[in-house]
Amino acid sequence: MADAQVRVAVVGAGSVGRGWAALCVAHGWPVSLYDVEMNALLDAKEEVVARARSLSLLKRADANTVETGISSLHLGRSLLEGCGQAQWVIEAGPEDLGTKQKMFEAVESVAGGARAVTSSSSGLAPSDIAARCRRKGRCFTTHPLNPPELIPLVEVVPGPDADKATVELVKGWLYALGRIPVVIRKQVPGAVANRIAAAVWREAIDLVLNGVIDIDDLDRAISLGPALGWAAAGPHLTYHLAAGNRGVAGFLQRLLQTFETIWDDLPTWSRLEPEQQRRLIHMIERTYKEQVDVIKPARDKRLAGILWGLERSKEA
């Protein structure tokens, strides 16, 4: 194993766990993948290999390095076999607090040499997840967005007991994987990315359920509108730049009243009723019926293209 590589154990073979594994494999890191369901593991290996090789096809990884990583991919038949030699244990199990607490407690008993044990949780507090652990300093959250092997953002949520040096170490590992870690300074439900996504999706759901716009046009309106601008600059900088030399102060002076009118009209519901769920599911499935197998690789290709463009713009 090269000095720059890290021995990783991924616990949980769902979509997020497979994405983490594919990312690490694509960088040539030795990965051990474990799941309590052996059938899930067997299915996962094939997908991890495919997703890692896809990164090469998308020019996001070196083909030889990918094959090196694939040759080191290991399926753990037990938690001990999966995590015993790991330097970094990445938990990617179900989003259930009790399940994660039990897994962290179990990992602590078999991964004594691990420098860091992190959760991929999208909304649970790291202090709650690690509540049963003795070595809380090495436990915190590294939350990726889907697909983890393509989208570079990773939210690092240390929690009050996390060791600062260990957090910096993991940030270094994330940079080595081509990720962009952002540190969440205060524990709040959903961290930051999911809170913003939840707020936008609530509005998107409300608009389509109320007949304002169709599903596919809504998705185009977001992906080719604000999402495109935010990919280049983020919301605060976007509005700061929008007013030219006057900056955000000028923007607020001219448009704050307009925004306040919109904010006042936004939905505030916090529960999607069963009938609304059925309507939403029907609308989305009807819109994208039998297209997912075509849309998903096309989506990945667009993501890779956007990332390539952003990276090239930094070099200019």
Task: Please describe what this structure looks like.
By secondary structure, the protein is α/β, with parallel strands linked by helices. The protein folds into two domains: 176 residues, Rossmann fold, CATH 3.40.50; 123 residues, N-(1-d-carboxylethyl)-l-norvaline Dehydrogenase, domain 2, CATH 1.10.1040. The chain has an eight-stranded mixed sheet, with helices on both faces. Strand 6 and strand 7 form a beta hairpin. Helix 10 packs across helix 11. The protein starts with 7 loop residues before the first strand and ends with a helix. The mean pLDDT is 94.
Topology:
Elements: E1 8-11, H1 15-26, E2 31-34, H2 38-57, H3 63-71, E3 74-75, H4 79-83, E4 88-91, H5 97-110, E5 116-119, H6 126-129, E6 139-144, E7 153-157, H7 164-176, E8 180-183, H8 193-209, H9 215-223, H10 226-233, H11 235-242, H12 247-265, H13 274-287, H14 292-315
Parallel strand pairs: 1-2, 1-4, 2-3, 4-5, 5-6, 7-8
Antiparallel strand pairs: 6-7
